[in-house]
Each structure stands twice: as structure tokens, then as C-alpha cells.
Amino acid sequence: MAGIKELRLRITSVGNIKQITRAMEMVATTKLRRFQDRATSSRPYAEEITALVGRLAAMLGEGVEDRPLFRAGKGEKTLALVVTSDRGLCGAYNSNLLKMIEAWRADLGRPVDYLVYGRKGFGYMNKRDFEIKSYLQEPPLEQIDYRSAALVGRILVEDFLSGEYRDVVLITTRFQSMVKYVPQIVPFLPIRGETLADGGGEAQSKSLEGGVILEPDAESIFERLLPRYLETRVFNALLEALASEYASRRFAMKNATDAATDMQNALRGVYNRKRQETITKELLDIVGGAEAIQ
Amino acid sequence: MPDTFTLRVITPESIAVDTAASSVRFPGLDGLMGVLPHHAPMVAALDAGALTWTEGGVEKEMFVSGGFAEVRGDTVRVVTEASEPASAIDVERARRAAERARERLRRRGRGGQGPGEKVEEIDLLRAQAALRRALQRLKVAEHKR
């Protein structure tokens, strides 16, 4: 059993750690809010673009499915964009995602090339037999804006169109709520007709039927719309991943703070008991001494 | 007759404009297009350029970097990657961007046509687009003064 002095030291150091985890929790909370806000304010744009794509696809009809972006590539491989965090201390955020990747590629039966965002994922995959095509670090994930997300999207599209790959998937964590974030593998390319139909909504596709003016024409609008649509999807996936990361970190730090509080209480209990014991012992000594004199 | 429609400029970062306008002009791919209230439904692809609208008798202008405009019912939605009010345009930055793009085009001009170089072709298109965006930004910024 540790001495009184050691106990006191431990109580202080647990207290110090608690202060740090609490501060980190608060930082994570504000950042989480920021990314959530950004995700929310990007939603109207995404919805508008998706709706437009859906409606134009409906207008163009069957021909849509023959475009290169809608057909599986000639290649054998799959290209995956993996989004992890740059920093640790965020609970099981990264390990959940990486575990899922391991399981996924084990039964995919095709070689996969990876584009990796986030230092943690890169560190893990680089040590193992993952084929990392490139490690994205500019700009850092946290400073992502639409323009750089669009650039990532463009890389994916260009690689896909080069014919080297059969398909492209996004492996990111979807943000469902403050306490629920699940890693997911979402097909990105080729674009599947069904996903577009969902976005369009029935009422809206109807309104496009009768005599809408298209300037210059459906074909060229659609041609310009598709890249925007794909970029938006990447942007959203990145923002959601960031929100999940911070939600996860906040949760982990909250747990750490709570655990520190529990530990502090337990230690304080032991400490007090010890102190009491010493005092009692000293008292007994004094009383014993006084009695001996009498 | 204060006949107006809703004009909404939507970007990935925010809804930049949400107002009642009585007319709007935007840079279509084949030239400037104007929309007045009760316009027929329309979808148009946009080039980089100035978006101008009248709001309560006052003319307002902003730069849009391409995108799409959609007229549906009594709402005009402009969906664009980036938009800036004339006052927020960084003239110096736009000028530098224009210069960079020009320089890239010049180098490319000297280098001659690489046979079937797809990558270079894309670069060329990008440089041209960048130059156009920069020049349009400057134009919008200068109008203001």
C-alpha cells in the first residue's frame, strides 16, 4: 500500500489529467458544432444539385446509363478513398473504420488501391500490405473547403475514367447523431441510376416534364452537372467524417474525465482512511505514553 | 405593381442571397440572360460572370463562378460553387490569378502541341477557365466603383 505522500501525489496528477481531458472535451464540442453547422449549410446546395441531376437524368431517359460515368470501368481494381483522423485520442473512431476495411477487402477478392486522408489511417495502412496510391495531406482535413474537396473528387473521377479501375468507393464515417457514427463503404462510381432517382423526388421530376426551357440543352447541362454532383458527395462525406471524428473524440474525452473523477474519489477515500489511521495511531501513542507516566 | 419573385443564391458554404427581386440577369453559357417575374420554367448552365438583380428598385451585383440557374414557379435558384458580392472581391488576388493563368497559357503556346497529350489538354482548359474567372471577377469589382 502506497504511503500518504504518494497518495497525495497521485490525486494531484489524476486531477491534472482530468483538467486536460476536460479541456479537450470542450474543444471537441465546439469543433463538432462548427463542422455540424457547415454540414448543415452545405445541405441546400447538395439537395439542389442532386435534385437537378435526378430530374435531368429522368428527362434524358435511357441514354443516361451509357455514359462512361455510369458504367463499370474496364479495369480489375477498385479505388477507395479512406478518411481517417490526423490526431488520436478519439476513441475507436479510426480503429472501427480500419477494422471494417480489413474485413471488406478480405472478401472483396479484387486488388484495391487506396487514397488516404488522415495521418492515423496512413500510419496503419502503410505498415501493412495496403496499396496506397497517394496520401492526401494538403490541405489538412480540418481546413477542408468545398474547393479542395472538389479537387479530391476530380482526382477520383479522372482515375476512374482512365479505365484502370472497375469502381470507386468512399470509406468514411457517416454522422448519424451526436452519439451514433458508423463507418461505411459507399459506392461512388460508377453512378447508379437508382441513387439519382431517389434524389430527384417524384413531384419534382413531374414538374420538369412539360416544356421546361433548357439553356443551352439537356445534354450540356447534364454534362456540367455530373462533376458538381460528385464533388458535392465528396465534400459531404468529408464534413460528415470530421463531425464524426469530433463527436467520437468528445465522447472519449468525456469518458476519460468521468473515469478520472471516479479515480480521484476512490483515491481520496483511501487517502482519508490512511490519514485517519495515522492520527489514531499517534493519539494512541500519546495516550499510552501519558498512562505509562501515571 | 411590386411584382417580384424569390431569388436564392445557393453555394456549398451557405445561402448567399435570399431575397425578393423584380428582375435578374445571369451569365448563361451563350451570353447574358434575363429573367422577369412569371418566367417559364427553365434550367440554365452558367458561365463565370456577373449576376445582377433588382431588389426594391436598387440594382445589385455579385460574382458567380459558373453553376446553374433554375426557374421554377416563382423562385429563381442560382446554384454556384462560389459567389462574392462586388465589395468582397479581392482585386489583388484576382489579378494575380489572371497573371498566373496567362503565364501558363503563354508557356503552353511556346511549347507547341504535344501529340495526344490528354493531361496537357486538361491543363489548358483549366488555365483558360481560371483566366476567365479571374477576369470576370475583376470586371464585377470594377463595376462597383
Stated plainly, the CATH topology of the largest domain in chain B is called ATP Synthase, domain 1
- What is the β-strand count of chain B? 8
- What overall geometry of chain B do the principal axes of the alpha carbons give? elongated
Overall pLDDT of chain B, averaged?
Answer: 82
Q: For the terminal residues of chain A, how far apart are their CA atoms?
A: 37 Å
Give a short overview.
The complex is a heterodimer of chains A (294) and B (145). With 294 residues, chain A is of the alpha/beta class. Chain A has one domain: 3-Layer(aba) Sandwich (Pyruvate Kinase, Chain: A, domain 1).
Explain the overall architecture.
The complex is a heterodimer of chains A (294) and B (145). By secondary structure, chain A is an alpha/beta fold. Chain A has one domain: Pyruvate Kinase, Chain: A, domain 1 (3-Layer(aba) Sandwich), CATH 3.40.1380.10. Chain A is built from seven helices and six strands, in the order αβαβαβαββααβα. In chain A, helix 3 links the parallel strand 2 (112-117) and strand 3 (131-136). Mean pLDDT of chain A is 87; it is low at 199-207. With 145 residues, chain B is an alpha+beta fold. Chain B folds into two domains: 5-86, ATP Synthase, domain 1, CATH 2.60.15.10; 90-144, Single alpha-helices involved in coiled-coils or other helix-helix interfaces. Chain B is built from two helices and eight strands; from the N terminus they run E-E-E-E-E-E-E-E-H-H. In chain B, strands 1, 2, 3, 4, 5, 6, 7 and 8 form an eight-stranded mixed β-sheet that branches. Residues 112-116 of chain B have low confidence and may be disordered. The chains are: A alpha/beta (294), B alpha+beta (145). The interface between A and B is medium-sized, with 29 and 26 residues.
